[in-house]
Every structure is written in C-alpha cells, then in structure tokens.
Recover the amino acids of this structure.
C-alpha cells in the first residue's frame, strides 16, 4: 500500500478514534491500557504515522527520526509508549505518544511561516 493511501486510511482511523475519545472526556492512558494489545498497537501506530506525516511537512529530519523510531519499536507493540502510559495513567494516550516522540525526535512545536 502506498504511503499516501496508508496515510489517508490512518487519518480516517484517527478521526474515528478521536471522535470516540472526545465523547469520553475522561479518556486516559489508564483506560487505554485495558484495551487488547493489538488495539493498542494499532492506535499507537496510527498516531505515530500521523506525527511522521506532520513532521514531513515541517522538519524532514524529524520525520525520518519518527519513521526510524516506529520501525524499531513496532515489533514490541511500541513498548516505550506503553511504559510511559503506565507511568502517566492520568494523561490522554495521544499526549503520551506525542511526549515520547517529542523526547526522541524533537519538539512538534513549529514556528509559523
């Protein structure tokens, strides 16, 4: 599957997940960790992919870092993120994912052109 098609499919997934999460304002990592491992892996993988796409439009080297990070941690179910969620159960899962990527690949705060 092409990266563009995969990105569109992933974006659709994120929109659906985000809509569900917004309906539950109390969606936190503690709840996320009760989901099946495959569901966790899919959610995290989709979020990481979107972070990579956003980075590619702003800082290409950061996008490469995100891609390398995803490739190296996919087989473990993104263990660094799961471990961080266990330490930070009160935070939204997406916030934890972004914090892990931010620490590994640099800030996602981009300056306006």
């Amino acid at each position: 599957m092409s990266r563009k098609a995969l990105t569109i499919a992933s974006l659709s997934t994120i929109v659906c997940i985000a809509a569900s999460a917004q309906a539950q304002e109390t969606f936190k990592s503690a709840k996320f960790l009760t989901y099946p491992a495959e569901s966790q892996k899919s959610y995290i993988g989709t979020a990481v992919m979107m972070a990579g796409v956003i980075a590619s439009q702003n800082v290409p080297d950061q996008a490469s870092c995100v891609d390398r990070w995803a490739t190296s941690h996919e087989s473990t179910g993104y263990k660094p993120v799961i471990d961080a969620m266990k330490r930070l159960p009160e935070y939204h899962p997406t916030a934890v994912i972004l914090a892990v990527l931010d620490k590994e690949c640099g800030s996602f705060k981009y300056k306006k052109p």
User: Anything to note?
Assistant: The mean pLDDT is 87. The chain has one domain: 3-105.
